[in-house]
Amino acid sequence: MTYYQNIIETANYIIKYFGEPIDYAVVLGSGITLELEDQQELGYEAIPLFPGNKHANRVKGHANKLTFGKISGKNVLVLNGRLHYYEGYSMKDVAFMTYVVKHLGVKGLFITNACGAINTNFREGDIVCLDDFISLVSNNPLMGENEPRLGERFVDMTTPFDSYLVENLHKSAKKLDITLHTGVYGFFQGPYFETRAEIRAFKTMGCDLVGMSTVPEVIAANHASLPVAVLACATNMATGIQEKKHDHEHVLQTAQKISENLKKLLIETLQNLK
Ligand code: HPA
């Protein structure tokens, strides 16, 4: 079966499993949690064509399941955990679920992640709504032959993030008195945390944040004309900006703390969306 056929089959499998139309989808990054009303679950291992089933050991902090339920009266599908390029998956594997989400017929996708803050106006624990990205990785899911049923060969990236979703996130943050910054995310391959010199270089390039995910999914969403917005959670200051050394446990703990505001933000935003 082709990549395209696998996507369509997986979308049909998920639609049949939950049996209801899905309004919005949310991807949760490391350590971030979100409970839904009337929640149903589907483990990734039970999805026959899920590319992650190729590797047994996945990253700690990811539950590796789909949850379906309601937030503010909307039907929401949550992807608890994602595939990363640094795990050894291909970019097409990393982007697979984004294309599946598109073929579920959702109106938009919210992506969350844990990342390091380079911009010193940001603090550990802050949430940043992306307005652009810099890929520091010389590969992406559109490389190779184009599948025209997924999208066009050459994709415009003038505005990678959907203005309707982004404006609503900012409106909700204001109403809830939650600080929501705007920033540029640098996509670093990992899985090591960047060096001090790399962070200095990325700062000069214009990165406010740095992380090891999200951009392949954002590129695929743009390819597929799927409206997307990203809430990046600064779980630490980037290397050399903070004095202490990095530690994945700390990333997970901070992400868990941020989850509370993230959830409030999504509840309020989904309430106001069409
Ligand atoms: N760098 C890259 N990825 C990350 C970081 C970081 O500092 N923190 C959480 N994910």
Helix content: 25-40%
Instruction: Give the number of DSSP strands.
Output: 9
Poorly predicted runs: none
What's the CATH topology name?
Rossmann fold
What string, H for helix and E for strand, traces the elements in order? Answer: HEEEEHEEHEHEHEH
Mean pLDDT: 95
Number of helices: 6
For the record, the CATH class is: Alpha Beta
Radius of gyration: 17 Å
Largest sheet: 5 strands, mixed, barrel
Q: Globular, elongated, flat, extended or rod-shaped: what is the shape?
A: globular
- N-to-C terminal Cα separation, in Å? 36 Å
How many separate domains? 1
Spatial order of strands in the largest sheet: 5-8-7-6-9
User: What structural class results from the helix and strand content?
Assistant: alpha/beta
User: What is the CATH architecture term?
Assistant: 3-Layer(aba) Sandwich
- Small molecules bound in the structure, each named once: hypoxanthine
The share of residues in extended strands comes to 15-25%
Query: Can you identify the CATH superfamily?
Result: Nucleoside phosphorylase domain
